[in-house]
């Protein structure tokens, strides 16, 4: 059953009714951008037999009805699109936002900052400076509604997940493998709980219900415990004190670092 | 509007339909009934669309009182069903009149039982579905004191029954390779296929734990895998190599390696396996999986025609004189009900 490692980019079946176009086995700014750009073009392929599409960190996904559209036919169509250009050279989709989200690092409300700082070889103060100063991209949304994977963070944050799962609350900022996840709701996780926000990733009454979109950029700005509690107590719309501005794609320069596997 | 008031209910009961497709890219999994076939069976018994919402009850049913006349159907994990003290057939449709009390007991086998209403259960839609998605915080559990209201019922037939496939005791489950199957060493994959698993105590609409006497099933670089798209049916290994089969309410992406994926037509069997039931996993080819899926699709399409009038056991009918024994309980025009709801 074991097969040799695939050469990327690669088109593979996932389950009986899914197909995955993967641009790299490791996350980089370029492989994520390639997946987002490829997915944007997939929308033009939608046809009978295709149920829905999505993206992950470095892949685009198609769910289809294999009794209506054969694996061979879908594979051929995806292959044609894949080879129509160099997706690593593609531009980011338009209409992205830049978010500044207030975040409390450490304390009893984010108890694993010290442990993460240790693992990264930093003091807690240094860790807060570096995490709080990182402008990260929403690489993908998944696991729960509106819940972003953000990064890439610098190589010092390439920390493995923990084996034991622990429970974190909604708005928790957790860290592993050079990424953040900002939790939509309370959930078990093997990532370290380094920060706490009052930002709601899924607002059922909100317009739109899911504020973040893959490609958006975010800074989790450090605030004191007192300020965080003030924000949490005073905002009722789920914004958690966040401020969003449109990214002007004309003058935007990519500052994300590549991750060396 | 007619319906049922809930006097007592399973702690894990919620409205479910076929779920909401199209929101995967925003991190929202489809969700919907844990046993899709049971949903389709109830719809066939009531002559309505399989997309209509029903009450899904885990482990045990509840106690209900009719607030008006209505039709119901009972499918999925068989439970002892009593209407005013008289036993009702499972996998069947029945007529209830105002004031009657329906009691659904513990599941005799399987996990998820379904109570369907003629006209469906009316509730607000969110993003095109009435399914509660508990992980996402959409909707909520049905509770004591709730009023479940029927949608407009254009059907009339009751007293129909269905013979259904027994998917309530575990058994062999067919799987296809996943994108991460090749991260597992050949001897681990071999052991996975010959291991007799039992369904563990940790199970919900997101996923079901599989236990075995032997060691865990771990992949190379298990803790450093890039988070990737998850599909329902994926068999995910947690950090200690413990397999979980993911169900319709699973997360949309995740970083734990998937050893294989249960094919869609066998997923109901996994969801319905009660705690302690034996489960084995068998890799099949793509062609074998597609053939099985096609047969499953044909079975669902044939459900409506497979409905037969119930044969009543007079010995079980304590109130024989209250039955309408002459006028047909089955509509002669049930074809016109196609596509209701």
- Mean of all residue-level pLDDT scores of chain B: 90
Please tally the helical runs of chain A, counting DSSP H or I stretches of 4 or more residues: 5
Using the coordinates above, name the CATH class of the largest domain in chain A: Mainly Beta
The amount of beta strand of chain B, in percent, is 25-35%
Spatially, the strands of the biggest sheet of chain A line up as 5-12-9-10-7-6-13
What does the overall shape of chain A look like? globular
Assembly state: heterodimer
Q: In DSSP terms, counting alpha (H) and pi (I) runs of 4 or more, how many helices of chain B?
A: 5
State mean pLDDT of chain A (0 to 100 scale): 90
Low-confidence stretches of chain A: 250-261
Strand content of chain A: 25-35%
**CATH superfamily membership of the largest domain in chain A, which one?**
Cyclophilin-like
Number of strands of chain B: 23
Shape assignment of chain B = elongated
Structural class, from helix and strand content of chain A?
alpha+beta
- Terminal residue distance of chain B: 16 Å
Order of helices and strands of chain B: EEHEEEEEEEEEEEEHEEEEEEEHEHHE
Output the structural class of chain B.
Answer: alpha+beta
Give a brief description.
The complex is a heterodimer of chains A (261) and B (341). Chain A has 261 residues and is of the alpha+beta class.
What would your notes on this structure say?
- Chain A is an alpha+beta fold and 261 residues long.
- Chain A folds into two domains: 10-89, Gyrase A, domain 2, CATH 3.30.1360; 97-246, Beta Barrel (Cyclophilin).
- Chain A has five helices and 14 strands.
- Chain A has helices spanning 29-42, 71-82, 113-120, 124-132, 225-234; strands at 10-13, 18-22, 50-55, 59-64, 97-105, 135-141, 148-151, 166-168, 172-176, 179-182, 187-189, 192-196, 217-222, 243-246.
- In chain A, the strands form three sheets. In chain A, strands 5-12-9-10-7-6-13 form a seven-stranded mixed beta barrel, surrounded by four helices. A four-stranded antiparallel beta sheet of chain A has the order 1-2-4-3. In chain A, strands 8-11 form a two-stranded antiparallel ribbon.
- In chain A, helix 3 packs across helix 4.
- Chain B has a seven-stranded antiparallel beta sheet, with no helix packed on it.
- Chain B has two domains: 3-161 and 309-335, no CATH class; 171-298, Cyclophilin (Beta Barrel), CATH 2.40.100.
- Helices cover 13% and strands 31% of the residues of chain B.
- Chain B has helices at 36-46, 186-194, 267-272, 286-301, 303-306, and strands at residues 3-9, 13-16, 54-58, 60-66, 70-76, 79-83, 86-88, 92-96, 101-107, 112-117, 121-122, 147-150, 160-161, 171-176, 197-203, 207-211, 228-229, 234-237, 243-246, 253-254, 258-262, 278-283, 308-309.
- Chain B has five helices and 23 strands.
- Chain B is of the alpha+beta class and 341 residues long.
- At the A-B interface, strand 2, strand 3 and strand 4 of A face strand 17, strand 20 and helix 4 of B.
């Amino acid at each position: 059953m074991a097969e040799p490692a695939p050469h990327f980019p690669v088109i593979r079946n996932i389950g009986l009714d899914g197909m995955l176009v993967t641009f790299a086995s490791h996350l980089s700014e370029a492989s994520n951008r390639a997946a987002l750009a490829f997915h944007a073009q997939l929308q033009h392929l939608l046809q009978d037999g295709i149920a829905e599409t999505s993206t992950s960190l470095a892949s685009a996904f198609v769910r289809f009805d294999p009794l209506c559209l054969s694996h061979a036919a879908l594979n051929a169509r995806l292959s044609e699109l894949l080879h129509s250009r160099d997706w690593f050279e593609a531009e980011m989709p338009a209409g992205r936002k830049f978010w500044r989200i207030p975040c409390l690092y450490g304390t009893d409300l984010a108890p694993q900052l010290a442990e993460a700082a240790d693992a990264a070889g930093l003091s807690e103060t240094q860790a807060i400076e570096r995490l709080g100063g990182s402008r990260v991209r929403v690489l993908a949304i998944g696991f729960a509604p509106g819940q972003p994977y953000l990064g890439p963070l610098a190589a010092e944050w390439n920390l493995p997940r923990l084996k034991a799962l622990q429970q974190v609350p909604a708005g928790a900022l957790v860290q592993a493998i050079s990424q953040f996840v900002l939790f939509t709701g309370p959930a078990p996780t093997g990532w370290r709980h380094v920060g706490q926000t009052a930002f709601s990733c899924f607002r059922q009454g909100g317009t739109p219900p899911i504020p973040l979109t893959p490609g958006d950029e975010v800074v989790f700005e450090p605030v004191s415990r007192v300020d965080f509690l003030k924000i949490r107590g005073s905002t009722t719309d789920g914004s958690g004190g966040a401020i969003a501005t449109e990214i002007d794609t004309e003058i935007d320069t990519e500052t994300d670092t590549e991750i060396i596997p | 509007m007619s319906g049922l008031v809930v006097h007592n209910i399973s702690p894990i009961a919620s409205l479910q339909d076929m779920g909401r497709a199209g929101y995967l890219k925003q991190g929202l999994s489809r969700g919907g009934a844990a046993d899709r076939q049971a949903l389709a069976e109830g719809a066939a018994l009531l002559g309505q669309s399989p997309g209509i919402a029903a009450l899904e009850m885990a482990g045990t049913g509840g106690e209900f009182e009719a607030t008006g006349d209505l039709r119901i159907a009972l499918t999925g994990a068989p439970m002892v069903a009593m209407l005013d003290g008289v036993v009702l057939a499972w996998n069947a449709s029945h007529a209830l009149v105002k004031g009657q009390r329906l009691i659904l007991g513990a599941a005799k086998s399987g996990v998820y039982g379904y109570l369907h209403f003629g006209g469906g259960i009316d509730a607000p839609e969110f993003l095109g579905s009435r399914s509660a998605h508990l992980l996402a915080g959409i909707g909520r559990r049905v509770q004591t004191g709730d009023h479940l209201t029927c949608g407009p019922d254009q059907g009339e037939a009751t007293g129909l029954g269905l013979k259904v496939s027994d998917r309530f005791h575990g058994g062999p489950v067919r799987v296809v390779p996943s994108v991460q199957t090749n991260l597992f060493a050949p001897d681990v994959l071999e052991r996975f296929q010959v291991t007799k698993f039992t369904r563990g105590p940790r199970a919900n609409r997101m996923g079901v734990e599989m236990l075995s006497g032997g060691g865990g099933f771990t992949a190379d670089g298990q803790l450093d895998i890039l988070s990737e798209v998850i599909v329902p049916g994926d068999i995910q290994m947690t950090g200690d190599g413990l397999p979980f089969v993911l169900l319709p309410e699973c997360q949309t992406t995740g970083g734990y390696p998937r050893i294989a994926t249960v094919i869609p037509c066998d997923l109901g069997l996994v969801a319905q396996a009660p705690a302690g039931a034996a489960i084995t996993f068998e890799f099949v080819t793509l062609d074998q999986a597609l053939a099985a899926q096609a047969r499953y699709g044909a079975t669902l399409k044939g459900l409506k025609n497979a409905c037969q009038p119930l044969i009543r056991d007079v010995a079980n009918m304590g109130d024989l004189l209250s039955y309408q024994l002459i006028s047909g309980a089955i509509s002669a025009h049930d074809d016109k009900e196609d596509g209701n709801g």
